[in-house]
Design brief:
Blueprint: E1 6-7, E2 10-11, H1 15-25, E3 29-32, H2 39-50, E4 55-63, E5 69-75, H3 92-98, E6 102-106, H4 111-121, E7 127-132, H5 135-149, E8 155-159, H6 165-175, E9 179-182, H7 189-194, H8 196-216, E10 221-227, H9 236-249, E11 257-263, E12 265-267, H10 273-282, E13 295-296, E14 298-300, H11 301-314, E15 319-322, E16 329-330, H12 331-334
Parallel strand pairs: 3-4, 6-7, 6-9, 7-8, 9-10, 10-11, 11-15, 12-14
Antiparallel strand pairs: 1-2, 4-5, 13-16
Length: 335
């Protein structure tokens, strides 16, 4: 309706006419300020203007601590170019399930683990425990949560490995977590091909240890973070994840409710293809794609974490949860 009309004394053009103006006036930057953002439409606009040699940014409103929206111009994010609307699982019952509970997240400093920490913290748990072997990641998420919640969140950060039964025994005996999210694992496929023993000890034995101790100390729920690579696995990492699933699926007679959540490719997570592409682009290329025909289903880190939280509240006995990730996308298009 605005096209060819005047807004604040300026004429409104359509995208095709704007193309000629960009070339005529030597415009180098385009800001997209559309409120009802549709992933597919935003991607089309983004590519339309980048192909004209423009830097394309997005106008967005952030909700500040005072709850007043604040307008910002920012770079496009991975989520904006997802080619679909990010999935949002709205389930008040799921959120309410974690309120007042003691929750343990193993591998809590990792990509998925840290987002789980953020989302669980917002549910009002009685206590949140982060267990991670890598102190730098654990420190980063610990400090972020302290800045965000201060004294309103009872937070405990423990440096230790799921390989060590003694560490797990002390932790469970002291804090008695009611819900356990088990995200601690080695997940890099090529690395684990060369270090198969490490993958088995960390993934399989680590899961076995944590599941045993959780059961011993009466945890209500145990949610394993798995992978779609566990389906008919063709590599060591996938095979270890399938073993992890079997470790929890066989516990149908347990008082602890065990379940697993399988992920596809998580955009922007450590070791995923996006940071690799971004690094290659920053270094001036080339961007390496194994095969132009490869297609993958993608999800964002917040989507993956919402799925886990939702599954955790629903879990009964040995289920495997998988998120419907919409349409697949060519790796080549992503690059």
């Amino acid at each position: 309706n605005k096209i060819d009309n005047m807004v604040s004394g300026l004429k409104v053009y359509n995208a095709e006419t704007a193309k000629h103006l960009i070339e005529k006036l030597g415009i180098r930057e385009v800001i997209i300020a559309i409120t009802n953002k549709d992933g597919h439409e935003m991607s089309k606009l983004y590519y339309h203007y980048t192909e004209l040699g423009c830097r394309v940014r997005i106008f967005d409103s952030l909700v500040t601590e005072s709850k007043q929206p604040k307008g910002v111009v920012r770079e496009f994010s991975i989520d904006d170019l997802l080619m679909r609307k990010p999935l949002e699982i709205k389930n008040p019952e799921a959120k309410a399930y974690y309120a007042g509970k003691t929750v343990l997240i193993t591998g809590g400093g990792g990509s998925i683990g840290s987002e789980l920490c953020r989302q669980i913290a917002s549910c009002g748990p009685k206590k949140l425990i982060i267990l991670d072997f890598y102190e730098n990641n654990a420190y980063d998420i610990q400090q972020e949560l302290i800045r965000t919640y201060g004294d309103r969140l009872d937070l405990e950060t423990v440096i230790g490995s799921v390989r060590d039964v003694d560490t797990l025994e002390v932790l469970f005996d002291k804090y008695r977590p009611e819900v356990v999210f088990h995200a601690a694992a080695h997940k890099h496929v090529p690395l684990m091909e060369n270090c198969g023993g490490e993958a088995i000890v960390n993934n399989c034995i680590g899961t076995y240890n944590t599941a045993n101790v959780a059961e011993k100390y009466g945890a209500e729920k145990f949610i394993l973070i798995s992978s779609d690579k566990a389906v008919n696995p063709t590599n060591i990492m996938g095979a270890t994840k399938r073993v992890c699933e079997m470790i929890i699926q066989c516990r149908n007679d347990s008082k602890t409710h065990f379940a697993a959540v399988r992920f596809g490719n998580v955009l922007g997570s450590n070791g995923s293809v996006i940071p690799l592409f971004q690094k290659q682009i920053a270094e001036g290329g080339p961007v390496t794609v194994t095969d132009k025909r490869i297609i993958r289903y993608f999800m964002t880190i917040p989507e993956a974490s919402q799925l886990v939280i939702h599954a955790g509240a629903m879990a009964k006995r040995g289920e495997l949860f998988v998120l419907d990730m919409g349409k697949p996308m060519k790796i080549y298009d992503l690059a």
